[in-house]
Amino acid sequence: MNILISGGSGFLGSAFSRELMARSRVQNKNVNITWLTRDSSQAHPDDINMMTYEELAQSDMSFEVIVNLAGAGIADSRWSDERKEQLLASRIQPTEALLAFIARTTIKPKLLLSGSAIGWYGTQGDKSLTESSGFETDFAHKLCDDWEQLALKAMNHGVPVAIVRTGIVIHPEGGMLGKLLTPFKMGVGGQLGDGKQIMSWISREDWVGAAIFIIEQHLANHTSEGHHASEQHHTNVSSSDNVLETANDTPAVVYNLTAPNPVTNHTFTKALGTWLHRPTFFTLPEFLLKLMFGEMSTLLIDGQKVLPKALLEAGYEFKQPTFKQALTEQE
């Protein structure tokens, strides 16, 4: 099986690639992974192929699955107007390149798995949110929705789409946890604001496992018959499941990639301090977070309770369903 990954060298893409290759060796299956890159000299594992975007534009290769993860980190810096443009462009440009390849290639992929985030739902406090929930409009929602709507255009070419809305990914190698390790180890870690905001998280091991589960489930049920391209219209999630209602008969689904047990920031802080054997007396008040981070402070202050209803109903079994497990059972 040939798989093309944008963002393959990143925090999620690299772990996803490693697990795919490990499973292929155990199962004695032939899996070829290609990372899309803007830098042909980028370091990479020996068993990973590399392809530049320029090469993709000329390539006649075929891929059974395309995984679209490219995108700058939304929490990496303050949301200036320039940064907002960078965040959008870093998602839109790779997706457009993939769509151009899909439109041109003779043998279409059987699935496009495209990244998104639980920011799609906007700020909704402690309201339980599943794939059929609506949204509140803010910058995070618009960023995610623009990315999702573009990826869904793959259906115009008969390619099914799975959108994965990712929560806070937990692993010490990167993401939010990677950024917090240093201050917490120094004993200056603490809760954010009143600590009551809900954090919807997922261990990196389960993110990888869930993504592979979605792909394998789709390929097992895949049929190329009865899929006809048509003009893409704006989509809404069905009220009963995670199937996106579109004007197109090519299937599209959405999954929340979050653990089934979200925690408050207070619980997160205390668990992290216990794991590191460090005190967590400090508190960063809300006004200071807003002063430091501006509009981006909403990611730290305003909670989201996003649940993986579709993933659980599909039969995925979490390896690390609790936050304590995510901290103590790292690979």
UniProtKB/TrEMBL annotation:
Residues 3-218 form the NAD-dependent epimerase/dehydratase domain. The keyword Cell division applies. Keywords: Cell cycle, Cell division. It comes from the Bacteria. One of its GO terms (biological process) is cell division. Residues 284-329 form the DUF1731 domain. Belongs to the NAD(P)-dependent epimerase/dehydratase family. SDR39U1 subfamily. This is Cell division inhibitor.
